Protein 1
Amino acid sequence: MDLKKMREKRNTLMDEMDALFTACESGDEVRAFTEDESKRFSEIETEVRALDAQIAAIEKRNELDEGGAGAGADGDPAADEKRTLDEKNFLEYMRGETRALDIGQNGAVIPAHIANRIIETVKELSPIYAMATVFNVGGDLLFPVYDESESSVSAAFVEDMQELTEGTGKFVNVRLENYIVGCLAKISKSLMNRTDFDLLWFIISKVAQKIAEFLEEKLIQGTPGKNDGVLSAKQVETVASDTVLTADDLIDLQMSVVQQYQKDACWIMHKMTLKAVRKLKDNNGDYMLNQDIRTPFGWSILGKPVYITDSMPKIEAGKPVIAYGDMKGLFVKLAQGIELQLLVEKYATQHALGVVGYVEFDSRIVEPQKISVLEMAAGG
């Protein structure tokens, strides 16, 4: 869609509308529209409103396409043209047709707006990342967190003129830091040279897939000495058995999250755990797990959607096997300015090209009351 031409057409119509008003106010005489003028005014109004709606839709589409990064969000034709040129030069460079890109010490730097699209693709590929509270910024982030266990603030009935007993509240600071994550993808030059192959999308999806797979694991399991995952939750329910789950265990886990955080709560588990849960029945012999086409993965337990991931542990003694709650309690910092570079010579002998990406990442459970974990009993 050519936004420039659409805006020019809108301006022409507005000039015609102004001319209709001017014709009614010539000299000292002020008159009403004639029948033909009134009809034409209505036609112009309808066309202008339609153009406004289409222009707004295109601008919104551009904003979403760029991951809300601002490029093209203002509908600037010059910005649109620059992005198109960047993509053209980038693809020509990859195919060896030009050296138009800036060359850094380790390769060619990929245009920023292309890199930003990778972050949006990561969000589509990783449900846990999409559900968390995400900050796409660089640098450390510091959050003050109210520690309920160390606080003595309370309310009570008092008599008139009676002194209140003071309580103390304690805050702890949770810091999201800069841990660097790197990924490398190799692309066959034979594949790149195919004219029917969408090379740009392949690069974006390939790198995004690698980052999403990494994040999926780390946001679930965490890394000692670095980031927290949902399995780091302080609210833990331990089942009686080390091998078997019961319906009561699921109810206990769900009720460990307070009511105010139940609205957006969900279940996260391994597919083998889901298999075991699917066989659970209530006292009437009905299966507890219900198919629900309204939920993202088609299943719900006790009214809440179920997400499966291979990053969750299977049922095993002493293992945390199910996470439940509002995953917005997990705060994630993933720098929007992902650094991507092309490695042209490194894989030349393999008739391939490398795409390497680096991003700053960290995660912490900043709102611990929102997330609970179900843990199997220790064996032996």
Note: The CA atoms of residues 51 and 311 lie 48 Å apart.
Protein 2
Amino acid sequence: MGSQLEGGNTCIKYLVFIFNFLFFLVGCGLLGIGIYSKVGDNDYIDVAEDLSSISEYITLGNILIAVGVIILIVAFFGCCGAIMENQTMLTIFFSLLLLIFILELAGGIYGFVNRDEIENQLEKDFNDAIQKKYFDSGDNSFVKKTIDKFQTDFKCCGFNGFEDWQQSTYYANKSTIPKSCCKDQSDQSPCPASRDPKDFNQKGCFVEVMDFFKENAYAAAACGIAFAVLQVLGLVFSMCLICALKRTGTVA
């Protein structure tokens, strides 16, 4: 079937197609990142999932995979609907994209309103990792490796300071503080058996880690705003295209 559109409406048609092709690439990227986070070696993602008190199925990797698949499905309807000038597929695309936009908006509002509650839960989970999970989960656990990585990379120790380790199950069993807390981590160093506070990193890790994630959250928020703007444009262009097809009498 030949094109029923002319002039500016043809431009809108190809704008919708280009938008959905970019949308499709975003979906592929999110799906790939989600799969990598599940099978790859990423300590920060692993510990975020292991520390979380949320359901084992609600993890970053699973969310990225689900969002990636949904975007691929939505982009499929958008691309095919635009290039085939199919009102039904474009209407499905518009409805799904609008639903995604509403869910994103609701999620953003929920996160903003409950930000203190979320941070308190993260605080509880992080403290529990130091007090119990670091020792209880075993020497090769993701929790242990990542807490060590935090303490080494951020030059910090414990939740608020090295004293936190003295109330932990690790200290109760080892009578010492993790080596990753030491300023000097060489094999010749008396730390972590030392009792001298000067041998340990002084600042706590929770504030350092939260600052790190907040800095990255700003970049993520900027990307989210840009993505939302693209979604609004996609909604506007697709609705214009649907209206144009209705005016031409195309019912496919």
Note: The two ends are 10 Å apart (CA to CA).
Protein 3
Amino acid sequence: MKEEVQKAIAPLIGQPLWALGRAVDLAWFEFGRRRTVTGWKGETREVGDYALHVQCAWRITLGEKVLVGRGDIFCPPEETDEPTTPDFDWQKANRFDRIVKKLFENESRQFTVLSVAAGDAGSFTISLQDGYTVQVFPQDSESGEHWRIFGPCTTRPHFVVTGKGIETT
């Protein structure tokens, strides 16, 4: 599996990472040049040459510090010592949204991919310029999707990692 993951993520080397966002709790990363495409609903949107969709544990680090990760999606925007209230709606606003907006400077900042390294069980690390890293690490054995990499609005196959192995669609 490690060799297949390495081969799937290797095309990211040299590409800019220019956007990170979410659809509910799925994190999406956009790499490569920006392209305007028409989506399946007829709307126009900007996509990269490569998209990485992650539904497992992930984080962006700088040195020994975690800047943002999957768990931030479920936290209030501002850190506090108070417990999260039961009525907190993470889907409206959360720490992830606030941190990503600042980190990517509203998509005006980008980070060049310097290297990629596949790990065990579908995990990998993307090393970015200035010491930043993106780390993805599947953490369960469920058969659902952990992550996928693909070319948005292209006919290239999707490379998908699940708790049961690799799929291509």
Note: The longest strand covers residues 16-23.
